[in-house]
């Protein structure tokens, strides 16, 4: 249960961050999502599937 809460908090934060980045342009937004995903994987705090889910949500908000 705790992991699911962290997952949704992280996904929401990534999507919100992407929305702000999207103010510039879609390419910048996508790059920010990619950078966040890489950081998530490197930090090792979250499991890879959590980082991947947040990355997907972030990219969807870049449209």
Give keywords.
63 residues; mainly alpha; 0% strand; globular
Commentary on this structure:
By secondary structure, this protein is an all-alpha fold. The longest helix has 20 residues, at 2-21. The mean pLDDT is 76. It is globular, with a radius of gyration of 11 Å. The chain has helices at residues 2-21, 26-43, 48-60. It has three helices and no strands. The chain has one domain (2-60).
Number of helices: 3
Largest sheet: none
Shape: globular
Number of domains: 1
The secondary-structure class comes to mainly alpha
Number of strands: 0
Quaternary structure type = single chain
Distance between the termini: 31 Å
Short summary of the structure?
This protein has 63 residues and is mainly alpha-helical. The protein has helices at 2-21, 26-43, 48-60.
Break the fold down into its secondary structure elements and pairings:
Layout: H1 2-21, H2 26-43, H3 48-60
């Amino acid at each position: 249960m705790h992991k699911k809460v962290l997952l949704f908090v992280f996904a929401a934060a990534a999507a919100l961050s992407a929305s702000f980045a999207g103010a510039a342009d879609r390419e910048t937004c996508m790059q920010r999502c990619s950078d966040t995903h890489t950081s998530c994987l490197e930090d090792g705090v979250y499991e890879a599937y959590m980082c991947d889910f947040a990355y997907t949500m972030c990219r969807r908000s870049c449209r």
